[in-house]
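Milestone M4 deliverable, item 7.
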Amino acid sequence: MADRTTRPTRRRVGRPPAGAREGEKVKDYPQLSIRVPNEFKARLSALSVVTGLAQWRVIVEAINCFFQDLPDQDREIVDGLSRQLLGVDGV
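Output delivered:
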């Protein structure tokens, strides 16, 4: 008979917090609703499956790639507008 004096380590129920930064929870992020053609929704779902990333992370990465491809002057404008919208000094 097995020795039951040692208890297995208990895991928490559910998924661990998966925010962009340590300690953040996705459920605390603002929600965004967009309409896209069916083929783009299918592509997003497929990218999520293939990469193992959540759909929100795929979208964030796409926005970051688009941002990085902007000319320097446009990136500065976007940074300034982002800071104003957030009401902070840095993004």
